[in-house]
Design brief:
Largest sheet: 7 strands, mixed
Radius of gyration: 24 Å
Strand content: 15-25%
Structural class: alpha/beta
CATH superfamily of the largest domain: Thiamin diphosphate (ThDP)-binding fold, Pyr/PP domains
Distance between the termini: 58 Å
Mean pLDDT: 94
Helix content: 25-40%
CATH architecture of the largest domain: 3-Layer(aba) Sandwich
Number of domains: 3
CATH class of the largest domain: Alpha Beta
Shape: globular
Number of strands: 18
Length: 551
């Protein structure tokens, strides 16, 4: 075998079954070797950010990594944003980056770059340039071990061309993964004592703690001991819907998160970090935990969250408590002129069983949570790292990981343009993905941020940087040009009819929803003032306003 053939066999033996690729000259021996390994599915992306985002979505749903194949440092750079999202979401990916032959690097050719430095931004736990064909497969096993351990990581293996084409390679076997440990007895007992002390307590759940076994254990603790259940603002994968415990997500806007956290005196972290503001704002705190609140860690990302919660439930005497579960509930189908909340309402009314719901709708998706909370059981994937352009590629990966489940991706118009090439891959692979694009012709969230950071003297030149009018994008035509069935909708009846059709017919579909901005005009002007006033308002009033703005 040459290096590439042995590498592919090693990856397949380790359980990696899909490679999302955007190759170039240095990766041609890997590309040729794909035909030597029937267990490896190769999925072409027209942009590296689609390949990395698809690998992210795949791993979130498959529970194991895919591989990506990228071309040199520039290709890795193009895929960096979605690798950043994967890193923040603790998602396992094995990123293979082709490099010049080892003897060629001395010439500093046009595409030569420092790949390791680029990779460390998103792959701090494992970056390695394979130095020889004989060592390649052992390097690959090390990369897979790092990616698959807890927490999941992006592991980057740099593959020089001559290491790939060199002969005499021997595949390596994957050792058994270590079993993650639960929280120790002393930690569990200390947190049980904190919960019993009578102060207002909350469990903040993230990562693996938002899957069914951990959710049920947390809900038993909540039912028994009266603790509140919170979820991180952007979950990697949240299992939700009828029959599962309901969890309140921390709000994106720091001022609203402050309202949620204000009553909490004991905050217990379960595979989550203490909440902080997404950005810095003049005169506002970055740390969102109240000064009077004690923070405890039940389980770190390296530990077994479900087993830790089950131990805590046992110590509290909550193991047999009856968890509160979300009752079946659907909104009525919307009617009339289309708005962003009506699109969310339509999704809640028509969401099928076992759907995978991907939310990158930004401001247009503010009502999605409340409109789908009692819908049939589904998985929710969100924008973990905040780097937009994740949603459409995630949909590709999720559909490949779960071919028997419908995927619905709600995407803002600005973010859609970052990785629109994902539609072509959906068509090529015949994936059952329904993409709903909210076309409000604006970077709406940035208009809100303009007010929140205090830059209120913006003139027409500044405002033009946040406006997508002139020309207005036509996503239906763009999708059709890439082989995706697409329609444009302007009222709720059209949208519901299009969504029903798309769910009933396999293959990719795009529904363009022409909607006004959710936060515009007087709402946009009032919102910063309202957010600023929240700390001075009586707590019940502040909580009511929070529910109104971001339910």
């Amino acid at each position: 075998m040459n290096g590439a053939q042995a590498l592919l066999k090693t990856l397949a033996d380790a359980g990696i079954e899909v490679c999302f690729s955007n190759p170039g000259t240095s990766e041609m021996h890997f590309v040729a070797a794909l035909d030597s390994e029937p267990r490896m599915r190769a999925v072409l992306a027209l942009f590296e950010g689609v390949a990395t985002g698809a690998a992210d979505g795949y791993a979130r749903m498959a529970g194991k990594p895919a591989a990506t194949l990228l071309h040199l440092g520039c290709g890795l750079g193009n895929g960096l944003a979605n690798l950043h999202n994967a890193r923040k979401g603790k998602v396992p990916i094995v990123t293979i980056v082709g490099d010049h032959a080892t003897y060629h690097t001395q010439y500093d050719a046009q595409l030569q770059s420092d790949i390791e430095t680029v990779a460390r931004n998103v792959s701090p736990g494992f970056v390695r340039t394979s130095k020889s064909t004989s060592a390649l497969c052992e390097d690959a096993v090390d990369a897979v071990m790092v990616a698959r351990g807890l927490p999941g990581q992006v592991a980057t293996l740099i593959l020089p061309a001559d290491v790939s084409w060199g002969e005499g390679a021997v595949p390596s076997a994957m050792p058994t993964l270590p079993v993650p440990e639960a929280a120790d007895d002393a930690t569990v007992q200390a947190i049980a004592n904190a919960i019993r002390c009578g102060k207002k307590a909350a469990l903040l759940l993230g990562g693996q703690a938002l899957r069914e076994p951990a959710l049920l254990a947390a809900a038993r603790i909540a039912a028994h001991s009266g603790v509140q259940l919170l979820a991180e603002v952007f979950p990697t994968r949240l299992e939700r819907g009828a029959g599962l415990p309901a969890v309140e997500r921390i709000a994106y806007l720091a001022e609203l998160a402050g309202v949620q956290l204000a009553p909490i005196e004991q905050l217990v972290l379960v595979d989550a970090k203490a909440p902080v503001s997404f950005f810095a704002y003049p005169g506002k705190k970055s740390d969102l935990v109240p000064g009077s609140c004690s923070v405890h860690t039940l389980s770190s990302p390296e530990q077994d969250a479900a087993a830790s919660l089950q131990r805590l439930a046992q110590v509290l005497g909550a193991a047999q408590a009856q968890p509160a579960l979300q009752l079946p509930q659907r909104p009525q189908r919307p009617t009339g002129k289309l708005t962003a909340p009506k699109v969310c309402k339509a999704v809640g009314a028509l969401l099928p069983e076992r759907a995978i719901l991907i939310d990158e709708a930004i401001t247009s998706g503010l009502m999605l949570g409340v409109m789908t909370k009692g819908a049939p059981r589904h998985d929710l994937i969100t924008l973990t790292g905040g780097a937009i352009g994740q949603g459409l590629p995630n949909a590709v990966g999720a559909a490949i990981a779960c071919p028997d489940r419908p995927v619905i991706a709600l995407i803002g118009d600005g973010t859609a343009m970052y990785t629109l090439q994902a539609l072509w891959t959906m068509a090529r692979e015949k994936l059952h993905v329904v993409s709903i694009i909210f076309n409000n012709a604006s970077y709406s969230v940035l208009n809100v941020e303009l007010e929140r950071v205090g830059a209120d003297d913006a003139g027409p030149k500044a405002q033009s940087q946040l406006d997508l009018h002139g020309p207005q994008l036509n996503f239906a035509q763009l999708a059709q040009g890439m082989g995706v069935h697409a329609v444009r909708t302007q009222d709720a009846e059209e949208l519901c009819q299009a969504l029903e059709y798309a769910l009933a017919h396999p293959g990719p579909h795009l529904i363009e929803a022409l909607v006004p901005e959710s936060l515009a005009g007087a709402k946009r002007k009032v919102l910063p003032w309202l957010l600023k006033s929240l700390p001075s308002l009586p707590r019940p009033v502040a909580q009511a306003l929070k529910r109104k703005i971001a339910p």
